[in-house]
């Protein structure tokens, strides 16, 4: 048993959770698409396959990657040792049990009990180190993790009471919380990665107010989804999303450097972040009555933004934190392109053809499949000499 504790994959949080999250991303979307097109007629989950898909993409896939990133970043922020060994194995098993629970013949109430522990445990681990180190500037990240736990409780409570509206509001609130979290984290790391990747001098930080406004706006947007205010178009919410879009565009303008287009680890992050702007402007159009389907905005965020940023981020972080050169293989560069096309297919083709969703699913699964092909060995093996 001691050998399990000492293997490299359980030496830091990004290793097991990036592997688990990427594997689940490919499997979950493949299962959903096959079921949706009638290729898995016998597939069943507690509460139905739609409830499973709604819950598992934010609370299974995205949360695993968030956990891996934060369990790696917080030790860097605080100077405290990261979770490893048996505590890390235990947290991974809590996540895994929650995924398997959907396939077990159990009641929705028992399913709720199995889903809820992971995010509070993650918040406890992160909060312990952030508070001990006095890193108050990182408390908003901790708040978002705790709010995600609340959204999950809301979602699964809707399942246990057979309230589809409550499920939907909880999931959408969680998705926009994830988007807010990515805007906060992206605002920190993307300009740093661009400057580091292009050997540019470190630029002084600008005014913090645009970032603060963007964070508060993102949290407020998530709250409006949780309260059901986004169930029908409301003209006054157009202003909120236009404001967020302008701030996202301002960031993209400030970060832009012509050199990034020749560096895959940079253009993949940059273009994926641009999907956040697409998503909020699409929501503004929906509220203003110029777009018929809110789901197009939702999937701009979910597929293009969250999926794209996750793939780009885990590719870069995995290389840096294992001491490998920051030079991705041609396969993962193809994965970046496939993920961008998955977003375009889900948003632009679906309104005109039912095959758009199938194509998007194939592209998504292929992108994460390429990541697993090239990175599984990296994440399982020890760190090599070199720096981040």
From TrEMBL:
<feature type="transmembrane region" description="Helical">
    <location>
        <begin position="171"/>
        <end position="190"/>
    </location>
</feature>
<keyword id="KW-0812">Transmembrane</keyword>
<feature type="transmembrane region" description="Helical">
    <location>
        <begin position="86"/>
        <end position="104"/>
    </location>
</feature>
<feature type="transmembrane region" description="Helical">
    <location>
        <begin position="211"/>
        <end position="229"/>
    </location>
</feature>
<feature type="transmembrane region" description="Helical">
    <location>
        <begin position="139"/>
        <end position="159"/>
    </location>
</feature>
<feature type="transmembrane region" description="Helical">
    <location>
        <begin position="110"/>
        <end position="127"/>
    </location>
</feature>
<keyword id="KW-1133">Transmembrane helix</keyword>
<protein>
    <submittedName>
        <fullName>NnrS family protein</fullName>
    </submittedName>
</protein>
<dbReference type="Pfam" id="PF05940">
    <property type="entry name" value="NnrS"/>
</dbReference>
<feature type="transmembrane region" description="Helical">
    <location>
        <begin position="12"/>
        <end position="37"/>
    </location>
</feature>
<feature type="transmembrane region" description="Helical">
    <location>
        <begin position="331"/>
        <end position="349"/>
    </location>
</feature>
<feature type="transmembrane region" description="Helical">
    <location>
        <begin position="300"/>
        <end position="319"/>
    </location>
</feature>
<feature type="transmembrane region" description="Helical">
    <location>
        <begin position="57"/>
        <end position="74"/>
    </location>
</feature>
<feature type="transmembrane region" description="Helical">
    <location>
        <begin position="265"/>
        <end position="288"/>
    </location>
</feature>
<feature type="transmembrane region" description="Helical">
    <location>
        <begin position="235"/>
        <end position="253"/>
    </location>
</feature>
<keyword id="KW-0472">Membrane</keyword>
<feature type="transmembrane region" description="Helical">
    <location>
        <begin position="355"/>
        <end position="373"/>
    </location>
</feature>
<dbReference type="InterPro" id="IPR010266">
    <property type="entry name" value="NnrS"/>
</dbReference>
